[in-house]
Amino acid sequence: MSLNKVFELNNFTYYYPRHSKPALGQVSMEVGEGEFLLLAGRSGSGKSTLARALCGLVPDFYGGSVSGDILYQGVPLDKWTKSSLARQIGIVFQEPDSQLLYRNVERDIAFGLENLDLPNSFMQRRVAEMMDFLNLNSLRKRDSSTLSGGEKQKIALAGVLAMNPQVLILDEPTSQLDPVAAGEFLKLVKDLNNEFVITIILIEQRLEQSFILADRIIVLDGGTIVFQGESREELRWAAQQNYPLVPVIPAIFTGFTDKDLPLTVKEGRKLLAGFSVKHHSQLSTWEDEQLKIRHLQPKAVGKTDKETYSGEKNRNPSGDRAKPLVEIERLSFTYAHGEPVLRDVKLNIWPGECVALVGANGAGKSTLLKVMAGLLPAFNGYVRVGNYSGKELKAEKTNCLLAYLPQNLDNFFLADTVSQDIGLSNQITASDAEFWLEKMNLQDFREDDPRKLSTGEKHRVAMAALLAANPELILLDEPTTGIDGEQKQEIGNLLLDLCRQGKSVLLVTHDIDFASDYAGRLVFMHSGTILADGSIQEVMAGNTFYTSQAARLFRGIEPGIINKTHARQYLGAQFSMDSPWGMGQEKGLDY
Amino acid sequence: MENYHARSVAIYLLVWFLLALFYNNLFQLTLMLAAVILLNYRLDRLGSLKKITSFILPLAGLIIIINGLFNQNGNILLTSLNIFSYTLPIYREAVIYGGAMAIKLIVILAIFTAFNILIPVERLMDIFGPYSNRSILVVAISAALIPDMVKRVHSINQVQRCRGLQEPGKGLLERSRNLGPLFLNLLRSSLQASMQMAEAMQARGYGSSKRRSIYQVQKWQRRDWLLLILALVVMGLALVGWYIGYRYHYRPLEQVSLPVYNWEVMALFCLSLPFLKGGHIWS
How many CA atoms lie within 13 A of B222 on its CB side? Predict the structure, then answer.
């Protein structure tokens, strides 16, 4: 490595207190000055533990035992004073709420500087600089509890940057942000890396942007490093190992080219151009895309008409024109002393539908879910869920009909063990609880405390507890936050399975690629209003940001393609038609 | 009150708190309740207090019922309950005492909501000045967690209702019994949140040096002296009143009437003055 070493880890091993299995085992790595490093891996692979070890919180805050060394600038980490470490190595955590101690935004940014006992005039200058740099002046006197997730994460970043760190560690900082806010945040981080040569160590599950930004990637699995190298090397390694850590765009092309896999939509388009794919440049307007979607031949994406274009046909797989399971008309809702959160919402959901609800943080998505779950009875308008409407729509009554999975699972669990928690409700029989325990692969965690499981495992337990009651409507608020690609696939397949059984799913998500893989219908909300509602192809064709990577790649080429599976089937179909693209057939890798 | 120094406001509210503990007279406590409700209204139009109403009102009701049923210190019989051939007398003194204790609880909680609005964590840290140690860390995290816990109660309640686990119940006793698992869950998740907060504070250098500086140094001004003197005088008057023998007795039950010339009532009136004038009478 040509750069000066900032970190050097030699066979670093760490055990959490009362754990016999190491969280990190024999980790050896180096990080260069000014490097942008991406730490990737499955949920529970040890990424967050490694991040905490690099800033000294492990083992200092958590306890436990360590062996091996971590050298920071050539000096063992435990030889540095706490104030020097805090000054030089900053960390931004996943959960924005737990990082903001103060209500006053300006004071919160200054918190770290106060702890370093810096002179008042210096702090004032540094905070002012930070607020100007991050464009936070409008939030200066705001109460931090009233900020959006993206704003809170920016304040947390400002607080860390105010301390002028040499190294910035970010532990899934965008997991709770909408796609636009997440993109902005990561761009800002890259600017810090470029302009101020701050060493960045980023942990992310959203691989699309972070793969492009990173100079180097380290993949952890079971607490050990299984790969270190550049982005394109990782793609080749993952292809060889069939390892599920490839962003959507390269995953689409895996097996179809001998050249380097593309990382961006732009590179993907270049590759497609090289494949001599015809561009329908004359069909680039939104109206034309819509027209084309309506006339698209379904075989192009390898699905039947009914499967591909949900619309009316997919709304009721049985073919019967029964009334919708959920009917919402002219719904508006305002929290006490607040602005209206929902305005004139109209939404119907039919049995067997999987509907994705997308929009920016604060658009009213979660509130809509809560109204449907009977948690916010003081709404105006007409809402019917099953046979419950008006004053009858209360959670105590609707819980036999619907399941509601909140975004934050900290408050979800009541029992001491996983098996007890799944069977806690009187509506759930012991055999149903056992069935879902096994179906969600939770046998090994049967006697574990559900609160101590990883994010993905918690989601599985919560889903099992809800689905064991056999609900007709499943409302999910951000079910993919903080979980890896494999776990997303498991959840997605489960949702499809439920829809096949005639159950309805409404999914609030920022993960547009996940929505494109599993939802048949897309609803786009903005400022409490539904601006678009239709088949996922139709809505994605009209969106710029709230659209999948695959849809961006094939925009103007084949607008019906909205996910990786469609794209690969399309490319596969082209190859099988003896295309001049070169490879002849795809290798059948499945990510 | 935001214009006052955090220390003077803290002492002022401490006097309120001590008086709430000190008074037992139903009328005095009711007067005090009116004053703290007024204070909360001026601060956030009762927003914070309303959030905990669903929790404190059942608890207050429970206090009255338990006192009425099990407190047998009384002379004036109100009624008798026949339970399984056992006669349970209900005394007037016990019911009134239970009512006073319930009001006392609401007053204390209302003082805490006011404290939480007037002294957010940043101002609380200012009270301790340039010192940083583990005790202050605990105080700061506790203060930050109070509003968080209120939100958390709401969230837990919602989730458990959706899971069919948190039936509100029909009677007061059933409702109170159902609160048990909720509290346990609240305690667990709040402890977890406090650990996350402590970790974030350590990551940002809290406790890394013995002294810490203050970003916005507030000056102790004349109005702070006046507020401090007022608080101390009121506390002194209450102590003198107690010393010369003015104490309220439930048994034998004294008449619950307006003690017009009572020093404590005057003290309460004085205490509410800054709020009645919007906190600017001396500024």
Answer: 4
Q: Specify the DSSP element, H or E, that contains A42.
A: none
Instruction: Over range B204-210, report the average pLDDT.
Output: 89
Reading phi first (left if > 0) and then psi (alpha if -120 to 50, else beta), residue A320 is in beta
pLDDT (0 to 100) of residue B175:
64
Q: What is the pLDDT of residue A303?
A: 38
- Phi, psi (rounded to 5 degrees) for A546: -85, 60
Kindly list the residues from chain A whose CB atom is less than 8 angstroms away from the CB atom of residue B148: 97
- Choose the weakest-confidence range: A126-135, B62-71, B127-136: B127-136
- Put simply, the answer to whether A93 touches B147 (Cβ < 8 Å) is no
Structure tokens at A117: 């006992």
Residue of A nearest to B167 (CA): A396
Contacts of B212 in chain A (CB under 8 A): 114-117
Report the alpha-carbon distance of residue A32 to residue A463 in Å, rounded: 42
Query: Whole-number mean pLDDT of chain A?
Result: 86
DSSP-derived letter for residue A201 is: E
Task: Please state the domain extents for chain A.
Answer: 5-246, 416-468
Q: Does A93 touch chain B (CB under 8 A)?
A: yes
Task: Quote ipTM for the complex.
Answer: 0.83
What is the CATH class of A5-246?
Answer: alpha beta
| Domain spans in chain B, listed from the N-terminal domain onward | 130-213
pLDDT surpasses 60 at A589: no
Whether chain A has a CB inside 8 Å of the CB on B185: the answer is yes
pLDDT of residue B157: 83
Lookup: tokens for B23: 């008074």
Structure tokens at B9: 């406001």
